[in-house]
Amino acid sequence: MSEEAKKGYSVPIGPIHPALKEPILFTFQMNGEKVEKVDFAPGKAHRGIEWMGMRRNPVQIVHLTDRICGICGVSHTLAFSRAVEQVAEIEVPERAHYVRTIIAEYERIQSHLLWAGVAAHELGFDTLFYLAWRVREESLDVIEYLTGNRVNYGIVQVGGVRRDITADQFPRIEASLSYYEDLFGKMLTLFLEDTTIKMRSRNTGVMNQQEALELCAIGPTARASGLNMDVRQDSPYAAYGDVDVRAVMPEQYLGEARGDVYDRIVVRLLEVKQSIDIVRQCMDQMPAGEVTAEPKIPKLLALCKKAEGEAVGRVEAPRGECLHYVRMDGHEQPLAWKVKASTYSNQMSWLKILQGEQLADIPIIVASIDPCMSCTDRVTVLRDGRRDVLTKEELHRLSVEKTRRLQS
Amino acid sequence: MSRTPMSAADVAEVFSTAFGDGIESIDVKEWAEGSRKVKNHAIWIRLRRDLLKEAVRRLVEIDYPHLGVVSGVDMGEYIDLQYHLAIFFGIPDAEIMVTLTVALPKGDLAVPTISDIIPGAVYTEREKQEMLGITVTGIPDTRGLFLPADFPKGVYPWRKDETGIRDDMVRELWTVGRPEGRPAPPVKPKEKKKKEEDAAAAAAPAAPQQPAGAPEPEAAPSETEVTKDE
User: Fold this and answer.
1) I need a labelling partner for A336 at 20 to 30 A (CA). Which of A196, A219, A261, B2 fits?
2) Chain A closest CA to B198's CA: distance in Å?
3) What is the total count of domains within chain B?
4) Which residue of chain A is at minimal alpha-carbon distance from B84?
């Protein structure tokens, strides 16, 4: 019995995470308030999309990729289209590259603001959560204005895009950019200079550069740990080679990278500013011309059908590298299709960043890699054979109480 | 750490001199997008299976790579595994995607783990085990990843032979139809609207009057109701 007590207890979290693409079951080995060991089991909602794709043609798959993720829809369509374009050697018109870039950056703005809201909520700072989600609406409105949809944009097609962005739409885009620019300073102050947020996120969930590298972390999670990687900068695609993109690193703002939750907030917020600049540059430089290499779908399919070979399409999604591998062998459907979403690479980081942290910190740390959205739905605590069920609300309450404790 | 970038051709040269015959093919590819056509570099190397680990180690010597993912293809007689690795990221215009491809014959589906060199590889190797039915020898975590616990054993979704998804496991949405044999909903059946009732009552005495020889009192109230409605 004493041996049992020494071992601590285990806390399973999940597996129902309705907002996640892959709902996850966490198992925490706890010792008192401290997390000793972390394990997770994804795959609670595996939909077999790759299996479905290998039985469909590329044009059908493009619409399937739109539905892989509700937040980074354009990243998957873009990564897949880029892979197919490389196999079939389809040259995308220049203007289409710019349209793709503008939509991708708007997606980044809305995704990062959504995340910022979630982070604030997990810390018990709900006024900030409301503010972040309210201002996020503007980017969704612009996306809807440009593509016709708020989610699942359906804008990217193999060989180009399905809708052009015309000059008469620029004023609306510009209006939203200045809206965000005016807000930016305020958001920065609210998030980064707030004592409460600092207390909760500084030195919480730390991962250093070496660990980030070894655990294959990507995107803002890796950059916050001082790992300079950004597909937009390293292997420029679409119009990113034409605009000035440098990876946003926490040391640019703070002078050093500590790899904690605070740094992840810094990176994401600064990337919103970067996205504003990129969209502006794209509007200035946008060349005239067609937006698709082949507007006739049967012709496009015939092109794809003839293609043989393999390629990788990589895109910097809001959460990090999104990679699609496609191999085609002269059939309508691809021989192989592998989707690697951003969270796929970042999940291994959880093992490191949750270790040694407190139960009340779990919500914000789990959310800090932006696993689409972190919904810690239900937690069961097994202690002395007694079984308590902690709801998400209770876990959230624990987190809020910790904030209060730190404040007093 | 100091990192000196190399050109894709030089990296390819390092591999072809180091492994000689062990390399079946090596391709250096380029792809460019946008107006300025900034190039993306990639090296595709197909090599013998037993050289995989040595190749990854060699890559670590050049620059510690970022492992994107391991993908796999069922080619019929064998299974191809592709290790997508990126090196020299963060250095302007230097990144190279190195893809190491190894073929595993169907008779001997084993490949050594690279998780001792790149710890983060465990995740994607676990996925390959369950999706392709291969054995990653030395993997520190043999559990599955994405498939549900009650998923049939010996079925591997990405395989295209008899161990792939069987036809009887697939249900096309359009052939499913309406669900049958469901319990009745726990709500009272809707009461007929007054007008319908009237219409039914009005129709009843008109058509089947002869067989039953409907009694007077039943027909009478229906007539009064109709007049009320009007």
Assistant:
1) A219
2) 48
3) 2
4) A312
Q: What is the count of structural domains for chain A?
A: 2
Nearest CA in chain B to A228: B90
Q: Extract the tokens encoding A113.
A: 């603001």
Position B3 in a domain = no
Q: Is B85 inside any structural domain?
A: yes
pLDDT tens, residue order, chain A (408 aa) = 455 556 677 877 767 643 344 567 888 888 888 888 888 887 766 778 888 888 899 999 999 888 888 787 899 999 999 999 999 999 999 999 999 999 999 999 999 999 898 888 888 888 999 999 999 999 999 999 999 988 888 899 999 999 999 999 999 999 999 999 999 999 899 988 888 888 888 888 899 999 999 999 999 999 999 999 999 999 999 999 999 788 899 888 888 888 899 999 999 999 999 999 999 999 999 999 999 998 899 999 999 999 999 999 999 999 889 999 999 998 889 999 998 888 888 888 888 888 888 877 887 888 887 775 322 222 333 344 444 555 667 777 777 787 777 777
CB pair distance less than 8 Å for A236 and B38: yes
Q: Is the alpha carbon torsion for A113, A117, A120, A122 positive or negative?
A: negative
At A5, is the secondary structure helix, strand, or coil? Answer: helix
Q: Is residue B184 part of a domain?
A: no
Residues 160-189 of A with CB under 8 A from B: none
A37 lies within 8 A of chain B by CB: no
Residue range of the domain that includes A281: 49-333
Helix (H, G, I), strand (E, B) or coil at B141: coil
Domain final position from A333, A365, A391 = A333
Same domain, A74 and A211: yes
Q: Which of B36, B40, B64 sits opposite A213 (nearest CB)?
A: B64
Cβ(A104)–Cβ(A240) under 8 Å?
A: no
CATH of the domain at A100: 1.10.645.10
Cα(A328)–Cα(A307) distance, integer angstroms: 6
Please check whether residues B124 and B208 belong to one and the same domain. Answer: no
Indicate which CATH number applies to the domain containing A370: 3.30.390
CATH of the domain at B104: 3.30.460.80
Q: How far, in Å, CA of A132 to CA of A197, rounded?
A: 15
Q: Which amino acid is at A378?
A: R
* Same-domain status, A20 and A62: no
* Spatial distance between the Cα atoms of A368 and A25, rounded to a whole number of angstroms: 17
